[in-house]
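Hi support team,

I submitted a single chain yesterday and got back a structure, but I'm not sure I'm reading the token output correctly. Could someone confirm the output below corresponds to the sequence I sent? I've pasted both exactly as they appear in my results page.

Thanks,
R.
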Amino acid sequence: MKHKPILLITGEPNSIFLEIFFKSIKKLKVKSPLILIASNKLVRMQMDKLKIKKNIKLLKKKDLENCKLDNKSVNLININYKSSKPFQKISSKSNMYISNCFKKAFEIIKKNKIKKFINGPINKKTFLKKKYLGITEFISENFSINNQAMLIYNKELSVCPITTHLPLKLVSKNINKKNIINKIELITKFYKLKLKLKPKIAVLGLNPHCESISNFSEDDKIIKPAINFLKNKKKYSVYGPYSADTFFLKQNRKKYDVVVGMYHDQVLTPLKTLFEYDAINITLGLPFLRVSPDHGPNEKMAGKNISNPLSLKKAILFLDKYID
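Hi R., thanks for writing in. Yes, this is the structure output for that exact sequence:
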């Protein structure tokens, strides 16, 4: 069967994305054609800055419809970008460009039924302006999806936070049985359909040692009942809640495929410590596979040609496995 293209957008233009993109495709052999949605001017400026030589093929509508593409050149859909210089300080001046890149990608996904999408890192503070918790929620709303999950994937061990980019003071108010059940259902479905594996899932408690001096314990009243429902009614391989402070010891984590935590840093901090750039961010629940490198724009390193492309490489290789 024919491999359909992978769409990529640069995300924040004043970031390391184009550097790691060109580093990734330098020796990467993939069957899926890569289509970059970006500014032709910006791509050429950054190629010149980074001393990268690669032919650019500006795509037309018929190219997408026929899908007769390869990776001998950079397959580029041009989006206008007003700035005359690359690697400036990140600000809201890039918002229109980022928005137009996303709009074009969403249009292509819906019209051409392309189901593989990678976005470069975004500065949430300047682009989302507190309207969304993160890009996961931004993309989900554009496809009318209310139930989604953020899976940080590594073949050895993946993690999923029940709450994403919430301040800690709001986490406990957003922990509920329905949310836990929905996310674990999405994880199990994804592993079965895409990875052909029934995952073993560990669930962490919210409070230290899964205990609370408060009269109301989220671990006892919310998390345990959710686990029991999934285990007994759904027959999922779900266990816990476990205390987060010792769970990630080697003898504990090797027993599971996925760890579900109650908040962002509870699970992302240990995963990034263990695997560094060897992880990708997958949004579960969408009608297509959306993946992004598991790191931010890193404007301080932009243009210096010292960034590690491993996470983007993993994202491209992951999507290349799947034939639509």
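A quick pointer for reading it: The first helix runs from residue 17 to 25. Let us know if anything else looks off.

Best,
Support desk
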